[in-house]
From TrEMBL:
One Pfam family matching this protein: Spore_GerQ
Biased composition (Polar residues): 1-19
The organism's place on the tree of life at top rank: Bacteria
Source organism (scientific name): Peribacillus simplex
Stretch list, region Disordered: 1-23
Protein name per the record: Spore coat protein GerQ
Length: 117
């Protein structure tokens, strides 16, 4: 419409720990697998949903975090020693009965960094 001022989009600077590359989204290190790696060895309750599964649609796993990758989580049941490899696609959320680590060490050693988008 004539006479209507154009609105400029609001620019928000995200808080990141990675380098800024002009014209690209910033490199982000706050991926769930990095948070899980920071909490390796802690007891966690993992809530999952398996769509279209008639036996069990939702399942809760409780165990010690052993490892986490981009697409999976490995936990072990401290009572039975049984290990579970859980694909991240089924993950809903995770709870901890203790405080979790979330501050990244300087330089992000051992953390996954994906290329800018």
């Amino acid at each position: 419409m004539a006479g209507t001022p154009q609105q400029m989009p609001m620019q928000v600077s995200p808080a990141t720990s990675g380098p800024q590359i002009p014209g690209m989204l910033p490199v982000e290190q706050s991926y769930i697998e990095n948070i899980l790696r920071l909490n390796k060895g802690k007891l966690a309750t993992v809530y999952t949903t398996f769509e279209n599964n008639k036996e069990w649609n939702a399942k809760i796993f409780k165990g010690i975090i052993e490892a986490a990758g981009r697409d999976h989580l490995i936990i072990s049941d401290p009572q039975t020693g049984k290990r579970y490899l859980i694909p991240m696609v089924y993950l809903d959320y995770i709870t901890f009965d203790e405080e979790i680590e979330y501050e990244y060490p300087f330089g992000g050693t051992g953390l996954t960094t994906y290329s800018p988008r």
